[in-house]
Amino acid sequence: MKYYITIPLLLLFLCSCVSNKDLSYLQGQPKTNTEIKRINNIPYKLQIDDMVNIIIKSNNQELVSVFKKNENNNSNTATTNQSFSGNANYYSDYSIDNYGNIRVPTLGELNVLGYTVEEVQKKIEDKLKDFIKDGENVFVSVKLAGIKYTIFGEIESPGTRIIYQNRVSILDAIANSGDITDVGNRKAVEIVRQTIAGTEKYTIDLTNIDAFNSEVFYIKPNDYINVLPLKQKSWGTGTTGLQSLTTVVTVLSLITSTIILARNL
After folding, report:
1. CA 162 to CA 176: how far, in whole Å?
2. Is 187:207 a contact under the CB 8 Å cutoff?
3. Could you tell me the domains of the chain?
4. Strand 223-229 relative to strand 147-153, pairing
5. What is the DSSP string of 125-151?
6. Which of 70, 147, 188, 213 sees the fewest Cβ atoms within 10 Å?
7. By C-alpha distance, which of 204, 210, 163 is closest to 51?
């Protein structure tokens, strides 16, 4: 009788443990994939709700001051800075509205939806030509004001976060959120992305070194990252050998006690 009980429990013990292969990132040897690398190097095109950082510099304080945003009259947040070298320096973060526009003081409303930051920079430079006198130098820089993403599921610290870099990998995003839990499925992490064409959904295997070649290895602003659970979580048997052994011993003790009690009746 005990063998009929022990064997199923032993199988349960073996199946319930999470193996190292399920927990380790980027296993195996990388393969070169020129096409995927080309996709990852395509410049990002701005979307609604993206934050764009605009810097306008000049030696002429008066020239730059007309582009300074009045925070009391504008819903966009802004900060200003005077460089210690004496150069006038203005920079601000602009949120792209539902129509794909940003509003820059003096320059007015600019549509940036679907443009790269380089194209937006060129737009601003062209607009500035109406305000720049001969011999005056103005420097314009446009870049993403960090990459915002939302991560949830089997992650240590779920939530919405911003990483202030121009390029963020999914591993950066996960590390910034405390790593995936032991019962999180690293082999099938989902990325949901809003694009001009609509909603797109991808899956990436982070246990494989070829994750570097995935077109979603580098996340984009406003991505949603969903870490699905392993089947071990629904079983509730534990993730380590010790946890699983404890579960098996508990179940075995319960069965034994039940049998003894039944015999004594």
Report:
1. 9
2. yes
3. 20-42+147-233 (3.10.560.10), 51-144 (3.30.1950)
4. parallel
5. HHHHTTTPPTT--EEEEEEES-EEEEE
6. 70
7. 163
Q: Which residues on neighbouring strands pair with residue 240, listed in sequence order?
A: none
Q: How far apart, in whole angstroms, are the C-alpha atoms of residue 105 and residue 174?
A: 37
Name the CA radius of gyration of the chain, rounded: 28
- Could you tell me if 208 and 151 are in contact, meaning their C-beta atoms sit under 8 angstroms apart? no
Closest CA to 242 of 18, 39, 3: 18
C-alpha span between 79 and 94 (Å, rounded):
11
Confidence band, pLDDT 50/70/90 cuts, at residue 78? very low
Q: Report the alpha-carbon distance of residue 253 to residue 265 in Å, rounded.
A: 19
Task: State the Cα–Cα distance between residues 88 and 250, nearest whole angstrom.
Answer: 71
User: Could you give the CA distance from residue 97 to residue 147 in angstroms, rounded to a whole number?
Assistant: 17
Phi/psi of residue 125, nearest 5 degrees: -60, -40
- What separation, in Å, do the N-terminal and C-terminal C-alpha atoms of the chain show? 19
| Residue with the larger pLDDT of the pair 130 and 135 | 130
Edge-to-edge strands of the sheet including 159-163?
Answer: 159-163, 147-153, 223-229, 184-195, 198-204
pTM here is 0.68
Per the prediction, the chain carries an average pLDDT of 78
Q: Tokens 């900060």 identify what position?
A: 79
* Strand duo 147-153 + 138-144: pairing: unpaired
